[in-house]
TrEMBL record:
Class in the EC hierarchy, top level: hydrolase
Organism of origin: Motilibacter rhizosphaerae
Reactions accelerated catalytically: Random endo-hydrolysis of N-acetyl-beta-D-glucosaminide (1->4)-beta-linkages in chitin and chitodextrins
Enzyme Commission designation: 3.2.1.14
Protein name: chitinase
Highest taxon above the source species: Bacteria
Protein family (similarity comment): Belongs to the glycosyl hydrolase 18 family.
Amino acid sequence: MPRASRRVAVTAAAVAAAMTSPLVATTAQAKQPASPQHVVNTYFADWDIYGRGYLVKDIPADELNHITYAFAAPDKDGLCAAADPWADYQKVFDATQTVDGVADTWTQPLAGNFNQILQLKKAHPGLRVNLALGGWTLSTYFSDVAKKDSSRKAFVQSCLDRFIRGDLPGLPAGAAKGVFDGIDLDWEYPGVDPGNGNHFTAEDKHNATQLLREFRKELDAQGAADAKHYELTAALPATAKASQYYELQKVARELDYVDLMTYDFHGPYEPATSFNSPFTTDPTDPNPGVDATWSTSATVDYYLSQGVPAEKLVVGTAFYGKQYIRVGSANGGVYQPFDDTGLSGAVTGVSGSTTPTYRDLVQAGILSPAGAVVGEGWVRGWNAATGEPYLWNPSASHTLSDGSTVSVPTFISYDDPQSLQERVDLVQAKGLRGVMAWEVSQDTDDATLLGTYAPLLH
């Protein structure tokens, strides 16, 4: 999968808070959140500064209390490495691009997104930023580093050295200390190669638990030295498939909270259109593999049934959708055959993309920022069985990857303020920890979607 669309091409089989108060840094205490305060978390990706030109200064920090920065990863030598050192800590931003309005210089100890994160945290005391390790394209070597005690220790120490203690290659010692408040594990997925080139063994599932235990131990030790609590979180799969990859109850004991990847349930690898992130399960969905856990709410119930505490569950939400073209015209395009030939996840904007973002839909004039349909020929539907909106146009124009244009029946599954409010209600009703979004640059300029989570901040 292209890194800029990290969550997009995962098969459904593979995908299956407010701030935590400082804790005394002991392993026993670290295994439970300090309070029932809610997490409102969004990912920020290092590549956001390229594609949309979305900068750290653009993050609406008043609308959240956690940011997860994507990505670093294990390298072939078993060490923790930045995915994009230039964007992360080398790029010099001018005064129009910085949080504080002061231009970077080539002689300062730390530049790039990391320095901007420090500025953002200074402007928003209490904001916590964790570093995500892995993701779809960068999970290759997790199996290797998790395989034995010595390799786990070496990897974890390198992660803490570079991203918690801040000793980045080529920079003064400790230059990046304070940027990150914890580590987020995003191993997709232990024990399998789901199509992203993972190394894997049959022991990965247990080794993932051991890797998290090593992180917990070392983060607690560093926390004792620094008089603060460093968080440990993980992005874990949706549906009952999650138990194939992780020892859920054991893993949850080590974590401050779990980010549920409750999206990418469906996509263009299936025979019929469907919903990217169904809130409830529709047993009539004709796509193969759909079971009773195939939705956000059912995934939450499954994790609870596996002994994962409600106060450790953070519900994942998607700020992008799935687009299907040449769609059968019955039922407003819902559960119809399609042919997405010529669409690409790498295409910017709605026209040629399999994964248009909410911002794309607004920028293209299909939706108003608040979610009303304003584009000619488009109709918004609501699927009661899944609790999800969708867009239908019997003749939408598309520019395909080969430069040709077509006008064809088009179906778009996406989330909007109405469907995200369902997630807020779920968090409140079940006493869950909060919500997470992939990812912040895909929202509108006025943070329409993030703003939906405001009740969880109070």
